[in-house]
# Entry
Amino acid sequence: MAVSELQGVFERELEAIAHDKASYPELEIVARRARVARGTTAFGVTIDRPGGADLELCERIAARLNALLETHDAPYSLEVESAGLDRPLVRPADYTRFAGKNARIVTTLTVNGVKTHRGTLRGVRGGSVILDTEAGELPLPIETIKSANLEYDPRADLQRNKQQRKRSHAGDRHGN
# Structure
């Protein structure tokens, strides 16, 4: 089987999985990759869903893809991974969906003297992603974005947990 045929099988099954809302509710295919190296096709899929994609979901999707790919006589490897805490932002809608979250955006052109920008996403305005930075609001034209991802801040989680524990203990002391 030609590599392009195997890639077609992979793509069609991924589309079927993405539209199988009964088996995979709220699943999002964030990214997909296929490349040929040393006679083997390496497939990769990054998935997400509200609350995150756990190991069990990754294993279920890998099993479904493997069941179909193994029926073809061509060497391949497959990696199914969660988008994780530093989720890539790949579509313009992602910048709106994750407004209020911290992000790291790398541009192909230098903007304000740098190519790597960090700040809080404010969404999309016109053809630009709006990033709230220490220096103020920074519009980054979508066509200049090379890569972007959320930036997880464990300190914010620790601070939130600490606040919740304080409220919980205060409630205990007052007989609640």
Remarks:
- The mean pLDDT is 90.
- The longest helix spans residues 154-173.
- The first strand starts at residue 28 and ends at 37.
- The radius of gyration is 21 Å.
